[in-house]
């Protein structure tokens, strides 16, 4: 009986010592990882590379450090690494199925980093949402909409569908349509519309502004108006033309198509 109690005390002492040591290593490890990440964040080289790549790089380092910490704690507790590997291998299929969506998002994040269809700061349209790219993470991409809403999109949704990068190019074209009465000479309507566009300092002259009848409508013609501008000036030009062209048409006595008269029987 004494041998049994002695063995039990030794076992508890050894196990307790390992548990205490594992807890200490865990606490110290988290502090060390936090300090390392602070140092990594202050590396000057990271500030010179793309914010997307820098964020991805720091997340990968953090995950790697925590993996090392977990393996160290398992080793301290006396769990044979061969057994750990066997358990991981046996659970790999189940975990893979359970995390199928997360893994596809991770793969999507890697693809976004490699192929770079867009970058942080771009205005994109994709996965049914649109806004400025705030962050590209390992699993999700964060957008800020024009009304300042935060939208989180799984990376797999962006890599598996069409994505429009609105601000990728230096210039954009403003496309508008206006309805004019059919009695108005085409050249006169064109002259007024082109005059408004040429008077706008933010409208580029190369390519030149364009105005022409697009199609016939009841009582008149529909004109298409196209003006190129710097991407940053798109909405300024859009709203200016939407206001100035109808105003100019009215000042030159150019009206819209008359409504068809209904005849009652």
CATH architectural group of the largest domain? Orthogonal Bundle
User: What is the N-to-C succession of helices and strands?
Assistant: HHHHHEEEEHEEHEEH
Strand order of the largest sheet: 4-3-2-1-5
Mean pLDDT, all residues = 84
The helix fraction, in percent, is: 40-55%
Structural class: alpha+beta
Number of strands: 8
From the alpha-carbon coordinates, what is the Rg to the nearest angstrom? 32 Å
Distance between the termini: 115 Å
Count of the separate structural domains: 3
Strand content: 15-25%
Tag the structure with descriptive keywords:
265 residues, alpha+beta, Helix Hairpins, SH3 type barrels, Alpha-Beta Plaits, 8 strands, 54% helix, 21% strand, elongated
How do you describe this structure in short?
The chain is α+β, with helices and mostly antiparallel strands. The chain has eight helices and eight strands, in the order H-H-H-H-H-E-E-E-E-H-E-E-H-E-E-H. Helix 1 runs antiparallel to helix 3 (51-76) and helix 7 (186-199) crosses helix 8.
